[in-house]
Design goal:
Chain lengths: 333, 524
Amino acid sequence: MLRYILKRLLFLIPVLVIMSFLIFGMIDLIPGDPAQMILGTHVTEETLAKAREEMGLNDPFFVRYGRFLADIFRLDLGESLMSRRSVWEMLGTKLPATLELSFFAMIFAVVVGLLAGVIAAWKQNTIMDYFSSLIALIGISMPIYWLGFMLILFFGVKLNILPTSGRMPAEINPDVLKTNFYLFESLFTGKWKIFWACVKHMVLPAVALGTIPMAIIARMTRSSLLEVLKQDYMRTARAKGLKFFDIFIHAIKNAAIPIVTVFGMQFGRFMGGAVLTESVFAWPGMGKWLLDGINTRDFPVVTGGALTVAFLFVFVNLLTDLTYTLLDPRIKY
Amino acid sequence: MRKNVLFVVVMVMALMVSLFGVVSAAEYGGTLVFGRGSDAVRLDPADVTDGESVKVLTNVFEGLVAFKEGSTEVEPALATAWRVSNGGKTWEFKLREGVKFHDGTDFTADDVVFTFERQMYEDHPYHKGDFAYWGYMYSIVESVEKVNDYQVKINLSSPYAPFMYNLACFPAFIVSEDAMKEKGVDGFRTSPVGTGPFAFVNWEHGSQITLKANENYWGGRPYLDKVVFQVVPENTTRVMGLKGGDLDLIDNFGPQNVSSIQQDANLKLLSQPGMNVSYLAMNQLHKPFDNKLVRQAINWAIDKEALIESIYGDTAVPAKNPLPPTLWGYNNWINDYGYDPAKAKELLAKAGYPDGFTAELWYPNNPRPYMPDGKRVAQAMQSNLRDVGINVELVTYDWGTYLDKTENGEHDMALLGWIGDNGDPDNFIYVLLDSDNATIGSAGNIAFYNNYILHQILIQAQQTTEGKQVREGLYKAAQYIIHDDAPWVPVSHMNKFMGADTDVMGYTIHPTGQVFLKNTWIKK
């Protein structure tokens, strides 16, 4: 087991090196001059040339890539060309925002998705089944963009009971918290007022982001539960006269592996992929940060950020694989 | 008896006036949340180029002089008086005494010298950054000397009257020497220290910047307790944030949201022609555009009012001068060419083209801030010109190529525009229409318009030391010449829009697009 984990972690190194080459190469291929992006159009040629030299943009591709790789191995992600902040420091503010949002989106997806899936499977071919399948279908085909705006319009403007965007009300000074895990920190340090304000800000984005995984989980739960319920041992269990709840626990454990797989994949995707939700709800996380980085050709931000996302993705996958052994003792590594 | 009635009426009116006066008196307190599309990049005034950083900086810092509220004229700020001598090359400033930076240190001549020298000298220990605007706007500064603690002397390499306006711009905002030495450049650009009406409190990168009232501001404490610049990237979310009460003031929300703000009884729409111009330049290197009659004919042929009405609606106003109407020196006595196809044909015949001619008309194919839809403008012009016998072929290139090719003078007619930097007419007329800027390959004057008298006037206006009135006169004269020579068809000035909660009072849009919040207050 331990050997397996070590092997998987070691395997990360070539994955990240290849990733870094792809990311670095791709950014290099996009036309656009970061120096011009920073300095704007009203600037003299000399100033521009000096800035290019200073940023090392004049060196050949492999020199720049080599320098970048050497820095990475020293765990130095460099500093943003635009804001001149350290990429590590920026990651420290963006990643918590994304992690919190992903966490709550996943809670929403799992609770609602499981419930809908279980009901649908248990009451197969009844009105309940059709209803929850319909919800899943709508959820999976709903454009997040549109859903996000509708949620804001209804809850933020018409009913005016939830905030329209952001992580925290402007009145609260974020300095009162030490980390960027606003929700978790305020919860664990008992700052209830801040906690409640953050919860209110979390509801809409978490629902918007969690809708698609919710639908996928619902469908996956339904089909994999139906599969399990058809098994002989299930019939035996029922014949033995086991209670509903015991049969259910039995069944869900065996049906869980595909559900956990979906969970892992979706959560991994969230790490860098919540661009739309983050834009719509002005959520200052990884997705928006990376997108801005790409638009302004901010190489250190894009490479540093994308590598972190790749690392987390692989890491979450590893955790998913390890979870399998807990669910099914027959799986051994 | 009649006298008594009159007395009562007067009393009632006086009471109403006083009541109204009480209601409208500015109130102190409250937090204003300003919603905008993206975050500031850096908060070092000498080292930024993006408008979002500048919106914050104009409230934290001040220059020796400052723009007046709602206009591009300048007034004293950290300098109380000045004198220009030595043929316009020496500028002496008397500094305001008793001003303190937000960290409590005194503002003196040393800070002024430091502010300029760190941008000027590459070997200066605090010359860390790109300083994009220095070469462009301040390279005529030869040296900055401290005369005594409250007097400085700026020496220029040549007389340059628009320099006064450059001094009101953000790169010349005075930074605290002590604070920068203490924090270093990296620390300073994330937590700046100035003398402005608001002091920096905190910056959550990508999310919000918080400022608080400067209790010791020399011009009196501002009304607001706190200002929060909040990043809300999506225009639609920003508008909904304003409607939902989370935001108090928003900008850049796009023309599609204008009417929805206008119709909301709880909101108000602020608008003003911005410091920009869009125009159709007729290249005088190409025949028949070297002929003034042809250029005038084209001006008569285009139905500008209808074009603006149908394409822009309320979001732009027609242009008749190269200067926007919000800029001083704008010549409002000029009568624009109207829409008169008959007159256009007559002029074409007089010029020797009774049957018209064929030409290319270029347009930018990506939305520009001064021209969101170049193609439709070009199409409208094409149809107008066809009516007078000029057959126009529409041509476009991707943006970079478009600029290169127009600077090379490869076009017959081309649509383009300009956004002003420093609020000086020189920044429009000299840059866009002087013969100095008609060099093939790097032309700002893409009409390749060359008028010796105009050139003399513009140089005179740059170098005169006789003050603004004289310069204003010169620019007004320049606009008569330009109107008659017709190197362009001036097209439009885009309006600048902002949306505000009805409780937000005392805010006016500044023509430069900068945001000044010192006189803004919130009605409770």
